[in-house]
């Protein structure tokens, strides 16, 4: 107990004392406690990925006010660091999760995330924002986000897709509420108090998550330390990790710049900020339906075509020059990108033993994080060099298409035939 690792009591105190709850082959796959875990993960994702998904509003606000003398590409590094660090700590947190460490790291990161959100309201210079909002908040979100995926893997197997899909709606909920709240509150109470209110909102959602989330299976010390390099002997896992890295090079470009592109083509600033919330709100449908469909048809059979549509929307986005067309792009892009984010972890969980879920997922998410880190600034640099959004769309859409090709390769390596559920 003194080393911070959950005891056997903590692992099982909320579960009926039956063989089903202590076996790695039998999963609850439902029931009040299991669905309460999903509800806690919804709150967790709203506080982390949902909060980070609001970055597009901050990008526009900083460009127009607090950091108006800083280039868009440079400002974009704040958001891209956030995005990448949601994934990057997964290498460490995943290993700690497999070893049984969950409650203390999760609670500590939750407290620090609230405090750091308060501190963002006091930032005035670029280096303040990159350090506090980019690095520190990103790390805390990553420390919280990764283990929640592993928690779902402990409680669901046959219905894992729908469970992860519902859990991922938290990102949509947070990504819808935080941009609207931020945009509306700043003129009323100022930027510092807006961030304090966001901090209080996080205090509520993370408090609930800390109360209900718990592991089910006993900890296992699998050999290999932080890395399980043997997992890369599986060509499908290797190709899948590379596909995530390449897809994330372009996946967040639309979400980061759609509000700014709308302003540039004459859409009212009073409406343009809603585009980020529309995209995030629409992703809720993609996350839920994607999760259900992955259980029925197989995650890769769902992931591959939906990601291809995301590429198409990314190509189309720069050519949307009216409020109506931008809304259509935001809705469709939100649905398919939401499917990608919610379904992405499912094949990773299935590519190995359940006792190694945290470490294997952590490695894949860490690789994807590099793409999430580099993508938006590359897009911003292209925008600065060309003075428009068309080249950004071509770049981002092309990287997503390449990611789709690697997803199809992964499917063929696993299935070794053209048709089948995988």
From TrEMBL:
The entry's protein name is MFS domain-containing protein
Provide the primary localization: membrane
Read off the lineage from the record.
Answer: Eukaryota, Fungi, Dikarya, Basidiomycota, Agaricomycotina
Similarity remark: Belongs to the major facilitator superfamily. Monocarboxylate porter (TC 2.A.1.13) family.
Which intervals carry biased composition (Polar residues)?
Answer: 9-20
Q: Which PANTHER family is this protein grouped with?
A: MFS-TYPE TRANSPORTER DBAD-RELATED, MONOCARBOXYLATE TRANSPORTER
Q: Name one GO molecular function term.
A: transmembrane transporter activity
Q: How does it sit in the membrane?
A: Multi-pass membrane protein
* The entry's keywords: Membrane, Transmembrane, Transmembrane helix
Q: Which InterPro entries match?
A: MFS (IPR011701), MFS_dom (IPR020846), MFS_trans_sf (IPR036259), Proton-linked_MCT (IPR050327)
Organism, per UniProt? Answer: Mycena indigotica
Location relative to the cell: Membrane
């Amino acid at each position: 107990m003194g080393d911070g690792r959950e005891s056997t009591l903590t692992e099982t105190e909320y579960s009926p004392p039956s063989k089903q709850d202590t076996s790695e082959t039998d999963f609850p796959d439902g029931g009040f406690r299991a669905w309460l875990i999903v509800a806690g993960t919804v709150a967790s994702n709203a506080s982390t990925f949902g909060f980070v998904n609001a970055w597009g509003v901050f990008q526009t606000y900083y460009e127009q006010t607090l950091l108006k003398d800083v280039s868009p590409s440079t400002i974009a590094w704040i958001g891209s660091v956030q995005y990448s660090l949601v994934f990057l700590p997964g290498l460490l947190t995943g290993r700690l999760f497999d070893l049984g460490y969950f409650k203390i790291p999760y609670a500590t990161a939750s407290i620090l995330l609230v405090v750091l959100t308060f501190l963002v309201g006091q930032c005035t210079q670029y280096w303040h924002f990159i350090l506090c909002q980019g690095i520190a908040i990103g790390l805390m979100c990553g420390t919280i986000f990764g283990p929640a995926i592993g928690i779902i893997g402990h409680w669901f197997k046959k219905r894992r897709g729908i469970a992860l899909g519902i859990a991922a709606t938290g990102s949509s909920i947070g990504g819808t509420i935080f941009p609207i709240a931020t945009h509306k509150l700043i003129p009323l109470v100022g930027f510092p108090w807006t961030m304090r209110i966001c901090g209080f909102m996080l205090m509520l959602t993370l408090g609930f998550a800390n109360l209900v989330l718990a592991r089910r299976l006993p900890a296992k010390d699998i050999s290999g330390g932080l890395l399980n390099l043997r997992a890369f002997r599986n060509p499908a896992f290797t190709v899948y990790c590379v596909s995530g890295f390449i897809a994330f090079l372009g996946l967040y470009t639309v979400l980061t710049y759609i509000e700014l592109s709308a302003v540039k083509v004459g859409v009212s600033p009073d409406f343009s900020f809603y585009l980020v919330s529309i995209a995030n709100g629409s992703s809720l449908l993609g996350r839920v339906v994607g999760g259900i469909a992955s259980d029925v048809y197989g995650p890769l059979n769902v992931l591959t075509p939906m990601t291809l549509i995301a590429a198409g929307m990314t190509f189309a986005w720069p050519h949307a020059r009216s409020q109506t067309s931008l809304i259509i792009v935001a809705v469709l892009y939100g649905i398919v990108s939401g499917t990608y984010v919610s379904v992405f972890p499912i094949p990773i969980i299935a590519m190995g033993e359940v006792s190694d879920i945290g470490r294997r997922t952590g490695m894949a998410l860490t690789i994807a994080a590099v793409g999430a880190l580099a993508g938006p600034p590359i897009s911003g640099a292209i925008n600065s060099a060309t003075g428009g959004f068309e080249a950004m769309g071509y770049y981002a859409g092309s990287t997503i298409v390449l990611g789709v090709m690697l997803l199809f390769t992964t499917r063929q390596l696993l299935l070794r035939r053209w048709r089948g559920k995988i």
